[in-house]
Recover the amino acids of this structure.
């Protein structure tokens, strides 16, 4: 039996997206730092290295040997929304050396204040451009569940 949490990531196969919304008992400012500042992102996700800040900053998300993902900041509306583009096509079984505009996906973090903290919504889109959309959406669905659970635990422990 599969345990489906109420706030688990979901796949929209027709739109080729993975989405998860989760409430975090911390301020928007704290959650914003956790999803935008490389030192904070590196504490709950892969090690983020960027060549600057803001739109156009590029670099890598390093998950370990042979698992380095090219990434770029596409859009910023501080402290409400940041969009990253990354070449994280897991079904390929290899990573490109540079960001691949043709097959990359977008990861959008949207933050909204709520009574008890912050509502964080993550939407990853563009899976129709990847080598195996169905496999990649499922892999990323489970990945966002695990990674965002780590984010919540970290930010709430410091709230």
């Amino acid at each position: 039996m599969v345990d489906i949490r109420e706030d688990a990531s979901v796949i929209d196969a027709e739109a080729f997206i993975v989405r998860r919304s989760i409430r975090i008992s911390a301020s928007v400012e704290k959650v914003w730092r956790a999803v935008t500042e490389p030192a904070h992102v590196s504490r709950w996700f892969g090690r983020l290295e960027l060549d600057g800040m803001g739109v156009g900053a590029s670099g890598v998300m390093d998950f370990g040997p042979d698992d380095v993902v090219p990434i770029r900041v596409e859009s910023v509306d501080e402290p409400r929304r940041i969009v990253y583009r990354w070449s994280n096509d897991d079904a390929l079984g290899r990573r490109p050396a540079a960001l691949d505009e043709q097959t990359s996906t977008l990861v959008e973090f949207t933050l909204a204040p709520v009574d008890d903290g912050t509502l964080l919504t993550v939407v990853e889109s563009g899976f129709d451009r990847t080598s195996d959309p169905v496999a990649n959406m499922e892999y990323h669905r489970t990945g966002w569940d695990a990674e965002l659970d780590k984010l919540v635990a970290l930010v709430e422990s410091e709230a």
In short: The radius of gyration is 15 Å. The first strand starts at residue 10 and ends at 12.
